[in-house]
Amino acid sequence: MKAIRVEEFGGPEVLQLQEIADLQPARGQILVRVKAAGVNPVESYFRSGTYTIKPELPWTPGSDAGGEIVAVGEGANQWEVGARVYTSGSVSGTYAEYSLCEASSIHALPDNVSFAQGAAIGVPYATAYRALFGRAHAQPGETVFVHGASGGVGIAAIQMARAHGLTVIGSAGSERGKQLVLGEGAHHVVDHREPDYLPELLGINCGRGPDIILEMVANVNLAKDLSVIAKRGRIVVIGSRGATEMNPRDIMAREANVLGMVLFNMTPEEKAGTHAALGAGLESGILRPVIDRKIPLAQAARGHEAVMEANSYGKIVLIP
C-alpha cells in the first residue's frame, strides 16, 4: 500500500509517498480504506519537529479520514465490512491508502455526507464543539465572535452556534471569505484586515462586546480580543503560532476568562459524547463541512503549504 512517510523532521518537502507493508487489524482495531484524508495545521507542527509532541519516526501523518471499513479485528464486531465511516484518530496515520484505527475512533458517516466531507469532521468539528460547549459553555441568546471564521474550525463553529440559538459574528480576510462566512450562517461578518474592524464589531451589538470569542491565532489577536470582550466573557484560545503580550488589566476590568483548549485533552467519555452530537448534526444537515481543495495524496506537501496560508476557505483534503 502507498502512504506518506516522514523520515526526518523538516519542511513540507519531507512528506514523501512510499510503498509500505499492508496493514492488518489487531484486537479492537478497524482497517479503513481511505477515500479522503483531512489536513490539519497541527500535523504541520508535528512534521516540523517544533511541537511539544514529537511523533516517532518514520511516521505517517493524519488522524481524519472518510472511507469504508475493509477489515474488522477481533472484539470490534460492532462494525461491519463495507460501512461508510469517518475517523477521529488513527493508529497508523490517514495520509495513506489504508488506515488502522481503534474502534472508538470510528464513527458512522451518513449517506448525505461525502467521503471528502467525512475527512473534514474529526479535528475541526470536534474542536469547534469542545470550544463552544465544553470550554465556553455557550448558551442560547449569547453572542459569539469567531475570529478567523472561514477555515474548517470556524465554519464548524458558525454552523453549531447558529443552530444553538446564538448571535454569530465571524471575521475573514477576503471578500470570498466574508461571503463564505455569511453563507454558512453568520449573522454578521467583519474584515479583520481593516483597521477599524474592532469598533465595527462593537457597533454590531450597540457597544457591548461578544460574550464568547473563539480565537484561532492568539499570538496576533488575544490582546485585541481582551479589549472588546463583554464583562464576564470567555475567550477560548484554539490556535496560536507564537508568544504574545497583553494587558492583564483588561482581564481584570471585564472579569473575563481566557480558556485554553487542546483536543487531545478530551476524556473517552467526552469524545464519545462529542461525536454522538456531531453525528446527529451531520445526519440532520445542520452540520455541512465545506471542502476548499482536493489534492492528490502524492502532493501532500502542497496540502501542508496550503493549510498554513493566511486565507482559508474550508477544508483541505488529500485523495489517495
Summarize the structure.
With 320 residues, the chain is an alpha/beta fold. It is built from ten helices and 15 strands.
Keywords for this structure?
single chain; 320 residues; alpha/beta; Quinone Oxidoreductase, Chain A, domain 1; Rossmann fold; 2 domains; seven-stranded mixed β-sheet; six-stranded parallel β-sheet; 10 helices; 15 strands; 25% strand
Write a structural description.
With 320 residues, the protein is α/β, with parallel strands linked by helices. The chain has two domains: 2-121 and 289-319, Quinone Oxidoreductase, Chain A, domain 1 (Alpha-Beta Complex); 124-263, NAD(P)-binding Rossmann-like Domain (Rossmann fold), CATH 3.40.50.720. The chain has helices at 41-48, 115-118, 122-135, 152-163, 175-183, 197-204, 218-228, 248-254, 268-284, 300-307, and strands at residues 2-6, 15-19, 29-38, 64-72, 84-88, 98-102, 106-108, 143-147, 167-172, 188-191, 212-215, 234-237, 257-260, 291-296, 315-319. The strands form three sheets. Strands 3, 4, 5, 6, 7, 14 and 15 form a seven-stranded mixed sheet that branches. Helix 3 crosses helix 4. It is globular and about 60 Å long. The model has no long low-confidence stretch (mean pLDDT 95).
